[in-house]
């Protein structure tokens, strides 16, 4: 029986020059941080995970050392208790799945059910560009084979100047590409950065935006109201033909259970690196399916998180698309995936997961040494 013998957590920082001006953050981002979790067994194998900072995990290593890494449900329970008392330590779950795959010789997507070895991607933009530049970016996505694009709206007063200006950018895209590209919109109203005190939209604001998005044939509107307003989300869902999506920062699985039971959203977007890990989120896939709610993970993270969400998506095979953070030149695959020996590369809007055991992660050890905090 394989046993866990060590757990190592390291933190890394890549300087960004030029800075990345994220639509959800009024402050230009001049560095990109990554936390790497390594779980090793007594035969020298190593499982890798990444995501949140693992705050609160220190001092709980003894709850895992000596255990079989394949006892994933047991480890999930421990991590859920740590999550309650301290921080989100779900990268540990990803590392355990990666290690379990290396022990069994199977890719995680196959361990989860093996419905597919690849996933369809939508290009997730992150920068607030002028309307003409947004339209050009949409053309580039089409040329690269993406079937869909997510457009960001401003989260605060530091953006384009209000939702009417955001709609103009969306109009420019639709005028340029017609129906060659499915469009989604992230309204950025569900949460704020700690320093951003801008109030979220009211229900009537969100409804006015929804009517504009209906006119422009938008597939879903994401986070149109503050995250706790499930009643408002449900009313908005009933008032518009545009799908309502959300949940990327939802912290507890039981909150998703309530969202699903109430049919508050059309689309739920958990991220395995932020809530529940792969072990917890696979529960949500089946709950959502039975309720007729779409499931497609949030995955705005580095390539390790993208891979983990992709394996879950491929294993259960329910998501029409997976989020692919990609907005050249500010958010390139090389920047996004700097902890990895080779950045992920999409193939005409598809991500092929292959047959490598576990999650298929290969780290760039020299880069990690150079960027270690």
From TrEMBL:
Write down the InterPro entries for this protein, in alphabetical order: Enolase-like_C_sf (IPR036849), Enolase-like_N (IPR029017), Enolase_C-like (IPR029065), Mandelate_racemase_C (IPR013342), RHMD-like (IPR046945)
Single GO BP term: carbohydrate catabolic process
**CDD domains, from UniProt?**
MR_like
Could you tell me which SMART domains the record lists for this protein?
Answer: MR_MLE
Q: Report what the protein is called.
A: Putative mandelate racemase/muconate lactonizing enzyme
Domain called Mandelate racemase/muconate lactonizing enzyme C-terminal: residue spans: 131-243
Recorded hits in SUPFAM superfamilies, A to Z, give:
Enolase C-terminal domain-like, Enolase N-terminal domain-like
One Gene Ontology molecular-function label = hydro-lyase activity
> From which organism does this entry originate?
Rhizobium freirei PRF 81
Keywords in alphabetical order: Magnesium, Metal-binding
User: Which cofactors?
Assistant: Mg(2+)
Gene3D superfamilies, A to Z: Enolase-like C-terminal domain, Enolase-like, N-terminal domain
């Amino acid at each position: 029986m394989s046993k866990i013998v060590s757990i190592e957590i390291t933190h890394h920082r890549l300087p960004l020059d030029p800075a990345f001006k994220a639509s959800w953050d009024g402050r230009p981002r001049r560095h990109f941080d990554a936390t790497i979790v390594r779980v090793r067994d007594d035969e020298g194998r190593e499982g890798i995970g990444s995501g949140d900072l693992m705050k609160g995990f220190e001092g709980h290593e003894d709850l895992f050392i000596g255990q079989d890494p394949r006892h994933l449900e047991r480890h999930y329970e421990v991590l859920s208790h740590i999550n309650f008392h301290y921080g989100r330590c779900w990268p540990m779950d990803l590392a355990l799945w990666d290690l379990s795959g290396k022990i069994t010789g199977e890719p995680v997507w196959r361990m989860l059910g093996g419905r597919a070895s690849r996933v369809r991607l939508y290009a997730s933009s992150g920068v607030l560009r002028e309307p003409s530049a947004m339209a050009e970016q949409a053309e580039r996505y089409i040329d690269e084979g993406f079937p869909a694009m997510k457009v960001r709206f401003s989260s605060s007063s530091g953006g384009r100047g209000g939702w009417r200006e955001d709609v103009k950018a969306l109009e420019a895209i639709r005028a340029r590409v017609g129906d060659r590209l499915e469009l989604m919109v992230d309204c950025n109203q569900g949460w704020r950065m700690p320093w951003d005190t801008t109030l979220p939209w009211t229900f009537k604001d969100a409804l006015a935006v929804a009517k504009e998005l209906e006119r422009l044939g938008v597939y879903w509107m994401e986070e149109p109201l503050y995250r706790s307003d499930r009643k408002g989300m449900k009313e908005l869902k009933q008032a518009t033909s545009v799908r309502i999506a959300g949940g990327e920062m939802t912290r507890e699985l039981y909150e998703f259970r309530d969202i699903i039971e109430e049919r508050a959203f059309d689309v739920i977007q958990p991220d395995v690196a932020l809530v529940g890990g792969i072990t917890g989120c696979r529960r949500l896939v089946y709950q959502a399916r039975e309720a007729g709610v779409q499931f497609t993970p949030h995955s705005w993270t580095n390539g390790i998180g993208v891979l983990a969400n992709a394996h879950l998506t491929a294993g259960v095979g329910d998501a029409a698309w997976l989020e692919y953070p990609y907005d050249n030149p500010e958010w390139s695959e090389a920047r996004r995936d700097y902890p990895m020996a080779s950045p992920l590369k999409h193939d005409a809007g598809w991500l092929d997961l292959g047959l490598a055991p576990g999650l298929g992660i290969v780290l760039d050890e020299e880069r990690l040494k150079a960027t270690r905090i």
